Amino acid sequence: MLKPLWKCTCLVTVVTAVGWSSAAAQKRATMTVSVDLAAPRYRDRFTDRRAIQAKAATLFADYLTRNVGFLRFAADDSTRPYRLAFVLDRFDRGSTSGFAEVGFWVRLERPDESPMESYWLQFRSADQSLVRVGGEDEFLNEIKAKLAHRDADSLRTGVLRWVPISETGLPNLDPVGFVLPFRLLDLCMKRQSTVELLAEFGGTVVREVPFEARLVGNFTPRGQPTREAAPYVGGGFAQVLPLPQPDDLTPSIARHAVKIKKIFVTSYVHDPTACGNRAPMAVGGGTP
Amino acid sequence: MTRFWSNGSVCVAHAIVLALPPAASAWAVQETVPQRSREQVLQSVNGALATAARGDFSAARSSLELLLASCGSAAEYRECRVLYASGLGSLLQREAAAEPESRDTLYTQAVGYYDRILREVPNDPEALYGKALAYRGLGPHEWMESFFVQAPTLDPARGALYLTFKGDYFATARRWAEAGDAYRAAVQRDADDDGARSGLIDALEALGLSSKPELLRLAKDWELRYSSSAADAYRAVLTLSFDPGGARDSVADAAMVGLVRLQSRNRLAVGAVPERVSTTWTPVREIRGFLTTASTQTAPWWRQSRERTDVLAQAALAGGRAASGAPNYELAERLWREGVGFAPRLSAISLDLQRQLALLYSTQKPLDPDGKKFDALEQDIFSDKMGALAVGDLEAAQRYHTTLGLIYLERGVWRGQQSARGAEQQFTWALDKADERLQRERFYQPLPEIRMLLAQHFDSIGSKSLAARRYSEAALGFLDLDDLEDADSAVRRAAAVGGQTADLARALGVRSALARGDAGACGAQSLSSLIGGARAFTLRQRFKVLADCSKLDAKRARAYAAQAFTLVDSAHVALVGGADVTRFERVMAALLGPFGMTFQPEHLDPFASPNAGQAILVSLPGETVPFAYTAQTDDVVGARIVAALGDVRSFPMAVAAGVVSIVPPAKPSPEVLARIQQVSGVKAVKYGAAGSQ
Which of A247, A261, B48, B665 is in the most buried spot, having the most CB atoms within 10 Å? Predict the structure, then answer.
């Protein structure tokens, strides 16, 4: 029987999905994805390097869209404050050997912070370094082949955990936690994922404090939601576990003195079915 | 699956005045007559969706509602109603995503339109899917259960997806046993369904300790093809093992070994475990200790069996790589040396470790200033003898020889005091291994760069016949990889040292003409000139030529595409390089498009999909293993049908789960229907509005 799921008796009931949903109309944050062919052999191969970098960026953006549901990705959109650059370069940048492994480094560029970079995807091992670069089709198909089975975990938890998915959230008193302005379905996120919330505490001295919280379901209030809560109905609910000691979070929430500044996904349990089935089919056949 | 439109009789026009500003919506003409042809309806629907995308949901919806009403109720305008209703369902779902305050109402209204379609066309795939998404958007309610339970049988072509939806429904209700059954059935039907595998792991983990053996079995089954799911399953076993009442038993041990193996292979953080797993647990503590000390003395648990020792060696390889990237070359060296010490001799992992060490000594001179370590490494492997490599892992051996060849090449040593200690011999062995892999594994590698280097070397020392042979081989390889310029250079050089190059020159001539866009090269004479040389090479070149001709010669595009497809489908011609993949996809689109089918490009995998009707082998430059291209089985069947039909005039049809559907007004002759029926993979042919067989 499903009825216990949405028959709530407490102030706030956390359910795994909502009967009447209404998470805030906020769109997931978008970051730009770019590709840079830094290794000279690849950089010099293509006469229209920008065009091929743009096409490659689209492949990476598609890959990220399939595998990371908590952000949106746009290829080469310079208007976004956060940028994820995939740089094709030597694995060992200090080496001057004539034959060296090349692969994609991933570099996260963010406002007011220094970029962070790590090696992510081998493209050609050292013993394959002689092999020709090939034309555009070959190069792009090689990238596709590399991406087809590349695990995105290290990107999600190693790099993208530094990109805020939202700058708003609703503090909740019982249980102590925060409501995300997105449904879990929209984030392709399963329960047990964890987020870090940077919260501002009011009072005589304003402090910014990070909290770890675990997604335990979607949020639905008992009865009519307050005006403040209404936009968050159906949003993912993250319960603060464990509560910091001494606990000044609970009284601060009770005083309405807590404001969410940023939300980061620190551990992402991916829901591939949600990401793969976001929109209805194109009318009359074909893919949406 | 494609739906067909019956373009019927003249209809009574009634004007509908739309309240849209013309500039905002060009599709919505101020006065519309009923839009009843399929093309007109789709144009209107897509126009409305474009309007909605600009934020004007209300106008888009009003228009579609009016147009839907204009279809009337006559039977022949059923599809008019279906398409407009489907458009409305789609529109409402988009609006629900944009306007969460009204989300439930909008999803419910969308369901209403899908239900309307399903009353007219029971089991309509688009409507079923749309309704399922709307239900998922609404969240679970008991009254949805019958839909989710029945859906897998209503659209068998998407049965696995609906089983996954069913699993999700039960999982949300925490009815884990039923969820597990649904996901299990989904995985059995479509092992490629990521969501089904993920759901099954969740369900089994939720079911508790009794699921550990099944999770372990699944993880092992999935290791090669679905490594991410396998890692999740191993993690689930470990988490359960540390639950209250859980035990660190043999299943937990096996999961830990499997997880470290996957982490090592896939360059993930080795030794990372779920948070519930104690870091003082012996296997965890030891693997982490080993990766920081490079001493097997800190890892006796990992030396207790051959399997664990193999995994420890893989961890040494991965750990060394991570260390060299840090960069901490000293730790990398220690890990690789230690790994060589305990890995089984001449195993793939041992060769890989030695290859990395050789590279490290070659590039990091401070680690080996006098070259003695490199020499010792060489001596070590050669003392066991090269012959032994032949019976070992061919991929590892080929890569090892290639690496040593490159090291000697960089040092300018083509021939050493011992033949093995020079680029000539190492590259020759590498090519021998590649030939052996072709014989044993059907994995063709062109490798023109190495062949060219050898050819130039032989040329420089006056070994003309050896040079001619290698130049010719290089030319073949360059042709296979569509590098016509280098192929031309190799052919000329081969000729200059006395090589027989007539066949190569002919092939090069045809390919060059096509590359210039000369459709005249598509003639029968050109094609017949592609003979001589190895049969496999000839077939590969024919595929390229036919595929290119299908692009250049529009009048005969279908015929060329059919021949190119048949070479891959029946003669099992391997695709070489990414350009061939693009050719194949173009060929498929050229075949399916005129028959109203849309080709769904798939991806390349290092392992063939269990769903693939037949794996298409692909050799990609820079990859040391063969890849498989997985085309949708229905697409392949569709292409076979088109190829079998020859020059029969095209008509719309659809293939779903091997069932071919043809709807009037298409009127294929009985003979054509019989030909379709005989095509491999066709399970049934349905013809007519009622789908008579």
Answer: B48
How far is it, in rounded angstroms, from Cα B57 to Cα B88? Answer: 10
Q: What is the pLDDT of residues B16-72, one digit of tens each?
A: 223 233 333 333 333 445 556 778 888 999 999 999 989 899 999 999 999 999 998
Contact residues, chain B, for A20 at CB < 8 Å? 104, 139
B484 min Cα distance to partner chain A (Å): 11
Whether omega before A181 lies within 30 degrees of 0, making that bond cis, reads no
CATH number for the region B1-139 comes to 1.25.40
- pTM here is 0.84
Q: Is A17 on the interface with B (CB under 8 A)?
A: yes
A36 with A130, same domain?
Answer: yes
Q: Which residues of A touch B173 (CB under 8 A)?
A: 2, 5, 16
Domain ranges of chain B: 1-139, 344-441, 534-687
Can you give the pLDDT at residue B420?
A: 82
Which of A101, A136, A155 delimits the end of a domain?
A155
* Residue B583, φ and ψ in degrees, nearest 5: -60, -45
How many other β-carbons are positioned within 10 Å of the β-carbon of residue B498? 11
Which position has the token pair 């983990």?
Answer: B205
The answer to whether A93 faces chain B, any CB pair under 8 Å, is no
- Domains in chain A: how many in total? 2
Report B:297-326 residues touching A (Cβ under 8 A): 324-325
Give the gap in angstroms from C-alpha A5 to the nearest C-alpha of chain B: 7
State which residues form the domain around A22: 3-27+164-274
Instruction: Report how far residue B550's alpha carbon sits from residue B643's, in angstroms, rounded to the nearest whole number.
Output: 13
Same domain, A131 and A17: no
Amino acid in the structure at residue B645:
L
Residues 6 or more apart in contact with residue B544 via CB below 8 angstroms: B482, B511, B580, B583
Is the CB of A94 inside 8 Å of chain B's CB atoms? yes
Cα separations in angstroms, B648 against B560, B616, B678: 14, 27, 16
Question: ipTM score of the complex?
Answer: 0.85
Asked if B148 contacts B135 with a C-beta cutoff of 8 angstroms, the reply is yes
- Look up residue B124 and give its two tokens: 């309509």
- Mark the ranges of chain A whose per-residue pLDDT is less than 70: 1-26, 203-204, 285-288
Supply B56's token pair.
Answer: 């004007």
Mean per-residue pLDDT of chain B: 88
Q: What's the whole-number mean pLDDT along residues B253-269?
A: 95
Say what the pLDDT of residue B102 is.
Answer: 86
Weakest-pLDDT range from A89-93, B115-119, B297-301: A89-93
